[in-house]
Protein backbone atom coordinates (compact mmCIF):
# COMPACT_ATOMS: atom_id res chain seq x y z
CA UNK A 1 0.00 0.00 0.00
CA UNK A 2 1.28 3.43 -0.86
CA UNK A 3 1.93 5.63 2.13
CA UNK A 4 2.10 8.91 0.30
CA UNK A 5 -0.82 10.12 2.45
CA UNK A 6 -0.60 9.39 6.16
CA UNK A 7 -3.71 8.79 8.26
CA UNK A 8 -3.54 8.68 12.04
CA UNK A 9 -6.33 8.55 14.62
CA UNK A 10 -6.40 10.36 17.94
CA UNK A 11 -8.96 10.51 20.68
CA UNK A 12 -9.33 13.80 22.54
CA UNK A 13 -8.29 13.34 26.18
CA UNK A 14 -9.78 15.23 29.07
CA UNK A 15 -6.57 17.16 29.87
CA UNK A 16 -6.46 18.33 26.24
CA UNK A 17 -9.83 20.05 26.54
CA UNK A 18 -10.75 23.53 27.72
CA UNK A 19 -13.44 25.32 29.71
CA UNK A 20 -15.96 24.43 26.97
CA UNK A 21 -15.05 20.73 27.04
CA UNK A 22 -13.59 21.12 23.54
CA UNK A 23 -10.07 20.25 22.32
CA UNK A 24 -7.59 23.09 22.79
CA UNK A 25 -5.72 24.38 19.76
CA UNK A 26 -2.35 23.33 21.22
CA UNK A 27 -3.70 19.79 21.45
CA UNK A 28 -4.72 19.77 17.78
CA UNK A 29 -1.28 21.12 17.00
CA UNK A 30 0.23 18.22 18.91
CA UNK A 31 -1.82 15.66 16.93
CA UNK A 32 -0.63 17.10 13.63
CA UNK A 33 2.97 17.19 14.80
CA UNK A 34 2.80 13.61 15.97
CA UNK A 35 1.33 12.41 12.66
CA UNK A 36 3.92 14.41 10.69
CA UNK A 37 6.75 12.84 12.70
CA UNK A 38 5.48 9.31 12.10
CA UNK A 39 4.95 9.94 8.40
CA UNK A 40 8.45 11.37 7.97
CA UNK A 41 9.88 8.23 9.56
CA UNK A 42 7.89 5.95 7.26
CA UNK A 43 9.09 7.97 4.25
CA UNK A 44 12.70 7.51 5.36
CA UNK A 45 13.26 11.12 6.44
CA UNK A 46 12.52 10.86 10.16
CA UNK A 47 14.51 12.40 12.98
CA UNK A 48 16.95 9.47 13.21
CA UNK A 49 17.60 9.37 9.49
CA UNK A 50 18.35 13.11 9.28
CA UNK A 51 20.49 12.89 12.40
CA UNK A 52 22.66 10.29 10.63
CA UNK A 53 23.18 12.87 7.90
CA UNK A 54 24.13 15.60 10.38
CA UNK A 55 20.83 17.47 10.12
CA UNK A 56 17.50 17.98 11.83
CA UNK A 57 13.99 19.18 11.03
CA UNK A 58 12.53 22.35 12.46
CA UNK A 59 9.03 23.61 11.99
CA UNK A 60 9.40 27.13 10.67
CA UNK A 61 5.83 28.24 9.97
CA UNK A 62 2.39 26.75 10.38
CA UNK A 63 -1.08 27.91 9.49
CA UNK A 64 -4.19 26.12 10.65
CA UNK A 65 -7.93 26.78 10.57
CA UNK A 66 -10.53 24.99 12.69
CA UNK A 67 -14.20 25.17 11.68
CA UNK A 68 -15.45 23.11 14.58
CA UNK A 69 -13.52 21.91 17.61
CA UNK A 70 -13.96 18.25 18.63
CA UNK A 71 -15.09 17.42 22.17
CA UNK A 72 -13.66 15.21 24.92
CA UNK A 73 -13.68 11.55 23.90
CA UNK A 74 -14.18 12.24 20.19
CA UNK A 75 -12.09 10.27 17.73
CA UNK A 76 -10.46 12.23 14.93
CA UNK A 77 -8.17 11.55 12.00
CA UNK A 78 -5.17 13.57 10.84
CA UNK A 79 -4.60 13.20 7.11
CA UNK A 80 -1.23 14.64 6.01
CA UNK A 81 1.19 14.55 3.11
CA UNK A 82 4.31 16.36 1.84
CA UNK A 83 3.51 18.97 -0.79
CA UNK A 84 6.87 19.69 -2.38
CA UNK A 85 9.52 22.32 -1.78
CA UNK A 86 9.32 26.10 -2.04
CA UNK A 87 12.61 27.98 -1.64
CA UNK A 88 14.14 26.43 1.51
CA UNK A 89 10.81 25.20 2.85
CA UNK A 90 9.60 21.62 2.72
CA UNK A 91 5.81 21.97 2.70
CA UNK A 92 3.38 19.61 4.37
CA UNK A 93 -0.38 19.92 4.16
CA UNK A 94 -2.91 18.39 6.53
CA UNK A 95 -6.60 17.93 7.17
CA UNK A 96 -8.49 17.09 10.33
CA UNK A 97 -11.45 14.76 9.82
CA UNK A 98 -14.13 13.45 12.13
CA UNK A 99 -14.43 9.71 12.52
CA UNK A 100 -16.98 9.59 9.70
CA UNK A 101 -14.84 11.61 7.32
CA UNK A 102 -16.15 15.17 7.72
CA UNK A 103 -13.42 17.79 7.48
CA UNK A 104 -13.38 20.10 10.50
CA UNK A 105 -10.03 21.80 9.97
CA UNK A 106 -6.93 21.96 7.80
CA UNK A 107 -3.54 23.57 7.56
CA UNK A 108 -0.19 24.03 5.87
CA UNK A 109 3.21 23.74 7.50
CA UNK A 110 6.65 24.81 6.26
CA UNK A 111 9.71 22.98 7.58
CA UNK A 112 13.43 23.63 7.36
CA UNK A 113 16.28 21.15 7.44
CA UNK A 114 19.16 22.62 9.48
CA UNK A 115 22.69 21.30 9.75
CA UNK A 116 23.61 20.30 13.30
CA UNK A 117 26.80 22.27 13.43
CA UNK A 118 25.89 25.79 12.39
CA UNK A 119 22.09 25.53 12.37
CA UNK A 120 22.06 26.75 8.77
CA UNK A 121 19.21 25.73 6.46
CA UNK A 122 20.05 23.15 3.78
CA UNK A 123 18.26 22.77 0.45
CA UNK A 124 15.58 20.16 1.23
CA UNK A 125 15.30 18.83 -2.34
CA UNK A 126 18.12 16.25 -2.18
CA UNK A 127 16.77 14.80 1.10
CA UNK A 128 13.26 14.41 -0.27
CA UNK A 129 14.24 13.02 -3.66
CA UNK A 130 12.14 10.02 -4.56
CA UNK A 131 9.21 10.90 -2.33
CA UNK A 132 6.11 10.71 -4.50
CA UNK A 133 3.56 13.48 -3.95
CA UNK A 134 0.00 12.20 -3.73
CA UNK A 135 -2.86 13.36 -5.92
CA UNK A 136 -4.59 15.00 -3.02
CA UNK A 137 -6.69 18.17 -3.22
CA UNK A 138 -4.46 20.97 -1.92
CA UNK A 139 -5.33 22.79 1.27
CA UNK A 140 -6.36 26.31 0.35
CA UNK A 141 -4.16 28.62 2.40
CA UNK A 142 -0.74 30.16 2.58
CA UNK A 143 2.30 30.23 4.83
CA UNK A 144 4.76 31.74 2.35
CA UNK A 145 3.59 35.34 2.53
CA UNK A 146 5.42 37.24 5.28
CA UNK A 147 3.64 38.44 8.40
CA UNK A 148 3.83 42.16 9.17
CA UNK A 149 6.66 43.27 11.38
CA UNK A 150 6.46 44.14 15.03
CA UNK A 151 5.47 47.64 16.04
CA UNK A 152 3.45 49.00 18.94
CA UNK A 153 1.83 46.33 21.08
CA UNK A 154 0.98 45.78 24.71
CA UNK A 155 2.34 43.08 26.99
CA UNK A 156 -0.24 40.35 27.60
CA UNK A 157 1.76 37.90 29.65
CA UNK A 158 5.19 36.94 30.79
CA UNK A 159 6.34 33.32 30.55
CA UNK A 160 9.54 31.50 31.24
CA UNK A 161 10.53 28.36 29.39
CA UNK A 162 10.27 25.52 31.91
CA UNK A 163 10.98 21.78 31.94
CA UNK A 164 7.54 20.80 30.62
CA UNK A 165 7.89 23.15 27.62
CA UNK A 166 11.13 21.56 26.40
CA UNK A 167 11.67 18.71 23.99
CA UNK A 168 14.51 16.25 23.64
CA UNK A 169 16.62 18.92 21.91
CA UNK A 170 16.09 21.23 24.91
CA UNK A 171 14.13 23.64 22.76
CA UNK A 172 10.65 24.83 23.58
CA UNK A 173 8.33 22.53 21.65
CA UNK A 174 6.09 23.95 18.93
CA UNK A 175 2.82 23.27 20.70
CA UNK A 176 4.04 25.12 23.82
CA UNK A 177 4.22 28.41 21.87
CA UNK A 178 0.62 27.87 20.80
CA UNK A 179 -0.29 27.28 24.45
CA UNK A 180 1.52 30.49 25.47
CA UNK A 181 -0.49 32.33 22.82
CA UNK A 182 -3.80 30.89 24.07
CA UNK A 183 -2.88 31.65 27.67
CA UNK A 184 -2.28 35.29 26.94
CA UNK A 185 -6.05 35.79 26.64
CA UNK A 186 -8.28 35.76 29.68
CA UNK A 187 -11.40 33.66 30.18
CA UNK A 188 -13.69 36.49 29.20
CA UNK A 189 -12.19 36.43 25.69
CA UNK A 190 -12.14 32.64 25.46
CA UNK A 191 -15.79 32.58 26.55
CA UNK A 192 -16.95 35.20 24.11
CA UNK A 193 -15.07 34.03 21.04
CA UNK A 194 -13.16 31.12 19.56
CA UNK A 195 -9.97 30.93 17.52
CA UNK A 196 -10.84 30.34 13.89
CA UNK A 197 -7.29 30.27 12.51
CA UNK A 198 -3.70 30.70 13.59
CA UNK A 199 -0.57 31.37 11.63
CA UNK A 200 2.55 30.94 13.73
CA UNK A 201 6.17 31.58 12.73
CA UNK A 202 9.08 30.22 14.74
CA UNK A 203 11.85 32.80 14.59
CA UNK A 204 14.45 31.80 17.14
CA UNK A 205 15.12 28.99 19.63
CA UNK A 206 14.01 29.63 23.21
CA UNK A 207 16.43 28.30 25.76
CA UNK A 208 15.61 26.75 29.16
CA UNK A 209 14.77 29.34 31.79
CA UNK A 210 14.55 32.21 29.32
CA UNK A 211 11.93 34.80 30.01
CA UNK A 212 9.60 35.69 27.14
CA UNK A 213 7.28 38.65 26.93
CA UNK A 214 4.10 37.80 24.99
CA UNK A 215 2.75 40.97 23.41
CA UNK A 216 -0.37 41.60 21.37
CA UNK A 217 -1.96 44.06 19.03
CA UNK A 218 -5.56 43.98 17.76
CA UNK A 219 -5.23 44.58 14.04
CA UNK A 220 -8.84 44.62 13.00
CA UNK A 221 -12.06 43.31 14.48
CA UNK A 222 -11.34 39.65 15.14
CA UNK A 223 -7.74 39.72 13.98
CA UNK A 224 -4.85 39.87 16.38
CA UNK A 225 -1.07 39.82 16.05
CA UNK A 226 0.96 38.22 18.82
CA UNK A 227 4.69 38.60 19.36
CA UNK A 228 6.95 36.64 21.69
CA UNK A 229 10.08 38.63 22.55
CA UNK A 230 13.10 37.79 24.70
CA UNK A 231 12.65 39.94 27.79
CA UNK A 232 16.34 40.82 27.90
CA UNK A 233 17.04 41.77 24.28
CA UNK A 234 13.55 42.22 22.75
CA UNK A 235 14.63 39.77 20.05
CA UNK A 236 11.55 38.03 18.59
CA UNK A 237 11.28 34.27 19.19
CA UNK A 238 7.87 33.73 17.64
CA UNK A 239 5.10 35.65 15.95
CA UNK A 240 1.49 34.65 15.39
CA UNK A 241 -1.62 35.98 13.74
CA UNK A 242 -4.94 34.71 14.96
CA UNK A 243 -8.45 35.30 13.77
CA UNK A 244 -11.41 34.92 16.10
CA UNK A 245 -15.05 34.13 15.49
CA UNK A 246 -17.81 34.94 17.92
CA UNK A 247 -19.34 32.00 19.74
CA UNK A 248 -23.00 31.28 19.27
CA UNK A 249 -24.86 32.86 22.20
CA UNK B 1 -17.40 -9.67 30.06
CA UNK B 2 -16.94 -8.21 33.51
CA UNK B 3 -15.54 -4.72 33.53
CA UNK B 4 -14.50 -4.64 37.16
CA UNK B 5 -10.94 -3.97 35.99
CA UNK B 6 -10.49 -1.38 33.25
CA UNK B 7 -7.68 -1.64 30.71
CA UNK B 8 -6.88 1.23 28.39
CA UNK B 9 -3.97 1.71 26.00
CA UNK B 10 -2.10 4.93 25.34
CA UNK B 11 0.81 5.77 23.11
CA UNK B 12 3.28 8.37 24.36
CA UNK B 13 3.16 11.43 22.08
CA UNK B 14 6.10 13.65 21.37
CA UNK B 15 4.65 16.69 23.19
CA UNK B 16 4.20 14.50 26.29
CA UNK B 17 7.92 13.76 26.50
CA UNK B 18 10.74 15.65 28.15
CA UNK B 19 14.39 16.55 27.58
CA UNK B 20 15.28 12.85 27.90
CA UNK B 21 12.69 11.78 25.32
CA UNK B 22 10.73 10.07 28.12
CA UNK B 23 7.08 10.55 29.14
CA UNK B 24 6.63 13.37 31.66
CA UNK B 25 4.92 12.59 34.95
CA UNK B 26 2.03 14.94 34.19
CA UNK B 27 1.40 12.93 31.01
CA UNK B 28 1.24 9.65 32.95
CA UNK B 29 -1.09 11.38 35.37
CA UNK B 30 -3.29 12.35 32.43
CA UNK B 31 -3.44 8.75 31.15
CA UNK B 32 -4.56 7.49 34.54
CA UNK B 33 -7.15 10.23 34.87
CA UNK B 34 -8.52 9.49 31.41
CA UNK B 35 -8.81 5.76 32.12
CA UNK B 36 -10.45 6.42 35.51
CA UNK B 37 -13.02 8.70 33.86
CA UNK B 38 -13.93 6.11 31.25
CA UNK B 39 -14.16 3.33 33.80
CA UNK B 40 -16.42 5.39 36.08
CA UNK B 41 -18.77 5.98 33.15
CA UNK B 42 -18.89 2.28 32.28
CA UNK B 43 -19.66 1.49 35.93
CA UNK B 44 -22.57 3.95 35.89
CA UNK B 45 -20.92 6.57 38.10
CA UNK B 46 -19.44 8.88 35.45
CA UNK B 47 -19.52 12.67 35.44
CA UNK B 48 -22.95 12.82 33.76
CA UNK B 49 -24.53 10.32 36.10
CA UNK B 50 -23.31 12.13 39.23
CA UNK B 51 -24.35 15.46 37.77
CA UNK B 52 -27.90 14.13 37.44
CA UNK B 53 -27.76 13.42 41.18
CA UNK B 54 -26.50 16.92 41.98
CA UNK B 55 -22.91 15.85 42.67
CA UNK B 56 -19.47 15.67 41.12
CA UNK B 57 -16.20 13.79 41.58
CA UNK B 58 -13.02 15.49 42.70
CA UNK B 59 -9.63 13.88 43.00
CA UNK B 60 -8.50 14.57 46.54
CA UNK B 61 -5.20 12.71 46.84
CA UNK B 62 -3.02 10.64 44.57
CA UNK B 63 0.18 8.72 45.05
CA UNK B 64 2.13 7.26 42.15
CA UNK B 65 5.51 5.58 41.68
CA UNK B 66 7.30 5.09 38.38
CA UNK B 67 10.13 2.57 38.13
CA UNK B 68 10.89 3.23 34.51
CA UNK B 69 9.51 5.97 32.29
CA UNK B 70 8.27 4.98 28.82
CA UNK B 71 9.73 6.71 25.75
CA UNK B 72 8.18 8.56 22.82
CA UNK B 73 6.06 6.23 20.70
CA UNK B 74 5.85 3.49 23.31
CA UNK B 75 2.47 1.87 23.87
CA UNK B 76 1.38 1.42 27.47
CA UNK B 77 -1.63 0.08 29.33
CA UNK B 78 -3.37 1.58 32.35
CA UNK B 79 -5.02 -1.07 34.48
CA UNK B 80 -7.35 0.40 37.12
CA UNK B 81 -10.15 -0.58 39.46
CA UNK B 82 -12.13 0.80 42.42
CA UNK B 83 -10.85 -0.47 45.75
CA UNK B 84 -13.68 0.34 48.14
CA UNK B 85 -14.35 3.22 50.48
CA UNK B 86 -12.34 4.55 53.44
CA UNK B 87 -13.98 7.30 55.47
CA UNK B 88 -15.18 9.78 52.81
CA UNK B 89 -12.71 8.58 50.19
CA UNK B 90 -13.58 6.35 47.25
CA UNK B 91 -10.29 4.59 46.50
CA UNK B 92 -9.06 3.60 43.07
CA UNK B 93 -5.86 1.67 42.44
CA UNK B 94 -3.94 1.52 39.17
CA UNK B 95 -0.98 -0.05 37.47
CA UNK B 96 0.99 1.01 34.42
CA UNK B 97 2.10 -1.86 32.19
CA UNK B 98 4.26 -2.04 29.10
CA UNK B 99 2.70 -3.46 25.96
CA UNK B 100 4.00 -6.92 26.88
CA UNK B 101 2.62 -6.78 30.41
CA UNK B 102 5.60 -5.64 32.49
CA UNK B 103 4.62 -3.33 35.35
CA UNK B 104 6.56 -0.06 35.26
CA UNK B 105 4.55 1.95 37.76
CA UNK B 106 1.50 1.97 40.02
CA UNK B 107 -0.52 4.18 42.28
CA UNK B 108 -3.49 4.81 44.55
CA UNK B 109 -5.99 7.62 44.25
CA UNK B 110 -8.60 8.89 46.72
CA UNK B 111 -11.68 10.65 45.37
CA UNK B 112 -14.46 12.63 46.98
CA UNK B 113 -18.03 13.09 45.84
CA UNK B 114 -19.13 16.69 46.48
CA UNK B 115 -22.60 18.13 46.26
CA UNK B 116 -22.90 20.85 43.63
CA UNK B 117 -24.50 23.38 45.88
CA UNK B 118 -22.24 23.63 48.91
CA UNK B 119 -19.27 21.59 47.71
CA UNK B 120 -19.59 19.38 50.79
CA UNK B 121 -18.38 15.77 50.65
CA UNK B 122 -21.08 13.09 50.55
CA UNK B 123 -20.71 9.51 51.81
CA UNK B 124 -19.62 7.65 48.66
CA UNK B 125 -21.02 4.27 49.73
CA UNK B 126 -24.58 4.72 48.45
CA UNK B 127 -23.34 5.88 45.04
CA UNK B 128 -21.02 2.91 44.62
CA UNK B 129 -23.43 0.27 45.87
CA UNK B 130 -23.47 -2.73 43.61
CA UNK B 131 -20.01 -2.16 42.13
CA UNK B 132 -18.16 -5.45 42.46
CA UNK B 133 -14.52 -5.15 43.55
CA UNK B 134 -12.21 -7.34 41.50
CA UNK B 135 -9.84 -9.94 42.91
CA UNK B 136 -6.82 -7.93 41.94
CA UNK B 137 -3.55 -7.80 43.87
CA UNK B 138 -3.61 -4.52 45.79
CA UNK B 139 -1.12 -1.80 45.02
CA UNK B 140 1.25 -1.51 47.94
CA UNK B 141 1.17 2.13 49.03
CA UNK B 142 -0.80 4.65 50.98
CA UNK B 143 -2.67 7.92 50.49
CA UNK B 144 -4.58 7.92 53.78
CA UNK B 145 -1.76 9.00 56.06
CA UNK B 146 -1.56 12.79 56.31
CA UNK B 147 1.34 14.74 54.85
CA UNK B 148 3.27 17.00 57.23
CA UNK B 149 2.11 20.55 57.50
CA UNK B 150 3.68 23.58 55.90
CA UNK B 151 6.51 25.32 57.65
CA UNK B 152 9.65 27.04 56.38
CA UNK B 153 10.19 26.70 52.66
CA UNK B 154 11.59 28.77 49.83
CA UNK B 155 9.72 30.02 46.79
CA UNK B 156 10.62 28.03 43.68
CA UNK B 157 8.28 29.53 41.13
CA UNK B 158 5.29 31.72 40.64
CA UNK B 159 2.43 30.58 38.38
CA UNK B 160 -0.93 31.94 37.45
CA UNK B 161 -3.82 29.73 36.47
CA UNK B 162 -4.37 30.29 32.73
CA UNK B 163 -6.84 29.09 30.11
CA UNK B 164 -4.87 25.93 29.24
CA UNK B 165 -4.77 24.85 32.92
CA UNK B 166 -8.55 24.90 33.33
CA UNK B 167 -11.08 22.16 32.79
CA UNK B 168 -14.75 22.28 31.90
CA UNK B 169 -15.58 23.19 35.52
CA UNK B 170 -13.18 26.15 35.30
CA UNK B 171 -10.92 24.57 37.89
CA UNK B 172 -7.25 23.91 37.37
CA UNK B 173 -7.03 20.32 36.17
CA UNK B 174 -5.20 17.76 38.28
CA UNK B 175 -2.39 17.14 35.83
CA UNK B 176 -1.61 20.88 35.66
CA UNK B 177 -0.62 20.89 39.35
CA UNK B 178 1.78 18.05 38.63
CA UNK B 179 3.18 20.10 35.75
CA UNK B 180 3.61 23.12 38.02
CA UNK B 181 5.48 20.90 40.46
CA UNK B 182 7.79 19.54 37.74
CA UNK B 183 8.39 23.04 36.38
CA UNK B 184 9.54 24.34 39.73
CA UNK B 185 12.81 22.41 39.26
CA UNK B 186 15.44 23.56 36.82
CA UNK B 187 17.05 21.47 34.11
CA UNK B 188 20.10 20.77 36.21
CA UNK B 189 17.91 18.86 38.70
CA UNK B 190 15.90 17.12 35.99
CA UNK B 191 19.14 16.06 34.32
CA UNK B 192 20.78 14.75 37.46
CA UNK B 193 17.82 12.90 38.92
CA UNK B 194 14.39 11.53 38.13
CA UNK B 195 11.13 11.52 40.08
CA UNK B 196 10.59 8.12 41.61
CA UNK B 197 7.27 8.84 43.32
CA UNK B 198 4.83 11.64 43.96
CA UNK B 199 2.07 12.06 46.49
CA UNK B 200 -0.15 15.03 45.72
CA UNK B 201 -3.04 16.38 47.77
CA UNK B 202 -5.59 18.78 46.31
CA UNK B 203 -6.59 21.16 49.08
CA UNK B 204 -8.56 23.96 47.49
CA UNK B 205 -9.86 24.99 44.07
CA UNK B 206 -7.68 27.38 42.10
CA UNK B 207 -9.67 29.97 40.20
CA UNK B 208 -8.87 31.45 36.76
CA UNK B 209 -6.17 34.10 36.89
CA UNK B 210 -5.19 33.35 40.48
CA UNK B 211 -1.54 33.64 41.30
CA UNK B 212 0.05 30.68 43.08
CA UNK B 213 3.40 30.59 44.81
CA UNK B 214 5.06 27.17 44.49
CA UNK B 215 7.36 26.65 47.47
CA UNK B 216 9.68 23.80 48.33
CA UNK B 217 11.62 22.26 51.18
CA UNK B 218 14.20 19.48 50.90
CA UNK B 219 13.24 17.08 53.69
CA UNK B 220 15.95 14.52 53.38
CA UNK B 221 18.32 13.45 50.64
CA UNK B 222 16.04 12.75 47.67
CA UNK B 223 12.80 13.74 49.39
CA UNK B 224 11.15 17.07 48.84
CA UNK B 225 7.95 18.70 50.02
CA UNK B 226 6.20 21.13 47.69
CA UNK B 227 3.49 23.59 48.65
CA UNK B 228 1.27 25.64 46.39
CA UNK B 229 -0.07 28.71 48.19
CA UNK B 230 -2.39 31.49 47.07
CA UNK B 231 -0.11 34.51 46.70
CA UNK B 232 -2.68 36.82 48.27
CA UNK B 233 -3.73 34.87 51.36
CA UNK B 234 -1.04 32.14 51.69
CA UNK B 235 -3.89 29.61 51.76
CA UNK B 236 -2.63 26.22 50.52
CA UNK B 237 -4.16 24.94 47.27
CA UNK B 238 -2.05 21.83 46.89
CA UNK B 239 0.75 19.98 48.58
CA UNK B 240 3.04 17.31 47.21
CA UNK B 241 5.83 15.05 48.37
CA UNK B 242 8.24 13.75 45.80
CA UNK B 243 11.10 11.33 46.01
CA UNK B 244 13.95 11.42 43.54
CA UNK B 245 16.38 8.80 42.33
CA UNK B 246 19.70 9.57 40.73
CA UNK B 247 19.95 8.92 37.03
CA UNK B 248 22.45 6.42 35.77
CA UNK B 249 25.54 8.35 34.69
From TrEMBL, chains A, B:
InterPro entries registered for this protein in UniProt: Acyl-ACP_TE_C, Acyl-ACP_thioesterase_NHD, FATA/B, HotDog_dom_sf
Transmembrane segments: none
Cited Gene3D superfamilies: Hotdog Thioesterase
All copies of domain Acyl-ACP thioesterase N-terminal hotdog, residue ranges: 5-123
Protein name as catalogued: Acyl-ACP thioesterase
Source organism superkingdom: Bacteria
Pfam short name (any one): Acyl-ACP_TE
Family: Belongs to the acyl-ACP thioesterase family.
Domain Acyl-ACP thioesterase-like C-terminal stretches: 157-245
Gene Ontology MF terms in the entry: acyl carrier activity; fatty acyl-[ACP] hydrolase activity
Lineage of the organism: Bacteria, Pseudomonadati, Thermodesulfobacteriota, Desulfovibrionia, Desulfovibrionales
Keyword terms of this UniProt record: Fatty acid biosynthesis, Fatty acid metabolism, Hydrolase, Lipid biosynthesis, Lipid metabolism, Transit peptide
Amino acid sequence: MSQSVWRESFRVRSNETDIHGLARLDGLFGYFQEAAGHHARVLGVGRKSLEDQGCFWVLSRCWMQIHQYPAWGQELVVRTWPQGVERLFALRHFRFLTEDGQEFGSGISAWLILDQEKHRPMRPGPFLDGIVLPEEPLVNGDVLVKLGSISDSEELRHVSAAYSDLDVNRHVNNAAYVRWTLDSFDLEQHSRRQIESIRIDYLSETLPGESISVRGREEAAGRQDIFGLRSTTAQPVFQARITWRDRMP
